[in-house]
Design brief:
The chain is of the alpha+beta class. It has a four-stranded mixed sheet with strand order 2-1-3-4, sandwiched between helices. It has a two-stranded antiparallel sheet with strand order 5-6. The radius of gyration is 15 Å and the shape is elongated.
Length: about 140
């Protein structure tokens, strides 16, 4: 299991904590320091059922400065931008035997974990997402 993680992102930290709450010690790739190869990024996008545009992050990135809101830009151009500026890759991306997901919100990870939660989990903002029995709170 792998998480493409940004330790400065609360959503990413919550996702990693839920993975660990399931008793899993994932490979943690800090993608800003060690970005995926172009081939890996394209594969992750495909396996997650996304488009490059759907994976682009706007907040806190050079998205606007680079004119990436232009809908006429090709997927290749968007992937090129993410390769040049990894901060444009939205996070966290999680890879498990059950699939690949962009875990926004963080509790999306619960749908692809091969193990159940071992107990309650509350996100950093105080939102409870898993009860004492390890079940997702709706």
């Amino acid at each position: 299991m792998t998480i493409y993680h940004n330790p400065d992102c609360g959503t990413s930290r919550n996702t990693l904590a839920m993975i660990r709450n399931a008793g899993i010690d994932p490979e943690v790739i800090e993608y800003l320091k060690n970005p995926p190869s172009r081939e890996t990024l394209v594969d992750l996008i495909d396996r997650a059922g996304l488009t490059p545009r759907a994976l682009l992050r706007e907040k806190g990135t050079p998205y606007a400065d680079l004119g990436l809101g232009d809908e006429s830009l090709s997927d290749d151009v968007l992937v090129d931008a993410m390769m040049a500026h990894p901060i444009l890759i939205n996070r966290p991306l999680v890879v498990t035997p059950l699939g690949v997901r962009l875990c926004r919100p963080s509790e999306v990870v619960l749908d692809i974990l091969p193990s159940e939660q071992r107990g309650a989990f509350t996100k950093e903002d105080g939102e409870r997402v898993v009860d004492d029995a390890g079940r997702k709170v709706n």
